[in-house]
Every structure is written in C-alpha cells, then in structure tokens.
Amino acid sequence: MALLVVSCLHVYNNWFGSTGNSHGVEYCVVCLSKVSKGEKLRWLRCRHCFHVHCIDAWLKVGTTCPICRVNVAPKRNFIISSMVSLAKRVGQWIENPLSSELTVAFCESFGF
C-alpha cells in the first residue's frame, strides 16, 4: 500500500517560483531541516510539502500527513482504475512485446 500511495504523489524539482520564494515552505517537518533551493519536494493532497525521502519514509508506516493527519492514500476507485489500466498495458505488452517498427529497427541494426 505504501508504494501505491507514494507512486500517486508528485515530485517537484524546481519548487522555487520565478520570484525566488519557496511558496511558504521553509522547513521539512519530518526531518526538521531547512528546505533549500533545488531539493526535490513532494506535495500531498492537503497542500503540505516535504523532502521526497522524508515523506516517502513516513508514508511507509502510515498514510496520513504528518502535519494535519489527513489521509493521503488514493481513493479506492483510483486504486482500482490504476490496477485495471496497468493490467491492460501488461496484457498489450504480452500480446505484442515489440512494435513492428522497433522489431525492424532491431533486426536491421544487428544485420538480420
């Protein structure tokens, strides 16, 4: 479940705006360290932000925001639709692992 929660959350590399501000984020409350320009941050649905490695470790234990305790786990319908979509993609790959263009390019590059 933890992997599913983390995989549904976005990571931001350039979180400083054009004005150079950090959008109000000064510290990561998980590690209590100051957030620096260029660090990767993860925003939760509740709009709280943390270092990626800090919140990922936190979410391995639970599914709530460390600040407001809102449940950040994806909704059941989202989980089901994600699993169905993944199953379809895997099925398509099993039926046709290499597209015809890729097969031709592969064969030509190896002289087949």
TrEMBL record:
Location relative to the cell? Membrane
- Give the source species: Gossypium raimondii (Peruvian cotton)
Pfam families named in the record: zf-RING_2
Protein family: Belongs to the RING-type zinc finger family. ATL subfamily.
Which residue ranges run through the membrane?
none
Name-wise, this protein is RING-type E3 ubiquitin transferase
Q: What SMART domains would the database entry show?
A: RING
SUPFAM superfamilies associated with the record: RING/U-box
- Protein EC: 2.3.2.27
Which GO terms fall under molecular function for this chain's record?
ubiquitin protein ligase activity; zinc ion binding
Keyword Transmembrane, does the record have it? yes
Provide the catalytic activity annotation.
S-ubiquitinyl-[E2 ubiquitin-conjugating enzyme]-L-cysteine + [acceptor protein]-L-lysine = [E2 ubiquitin-conjugating enzyme]-L-cysteine + N(6)-ubiquitinyl-[acceptor protein]-L-lysine
GO CC entries? membrane
Instruction: Provide the top EC class.
Output: transferase
GO terms of biological process kind: protein ubiquitination
Q: Which residues form the RING-type domain?
A: 28-69
Instruction: Identify the domain of life.
Output: Eukaryota
Q: What is the lineage of its organism?
A: Eukaryota, Viridiplantae, Streptophyta, Embryophyta, Tracheophyta
Q: Which Gene3D superfamilies match?
A: Zinc/RING finger domain, C3HC4 (zinc finger)
Q: Which InterPro entries match?
A: Znf_RING, Znf_RING/FYVE/PHD
Key words, A-Z = Membrane, Metal-binding, Transmembrane, Transmembrane helix, Zinc, Zinc-finger
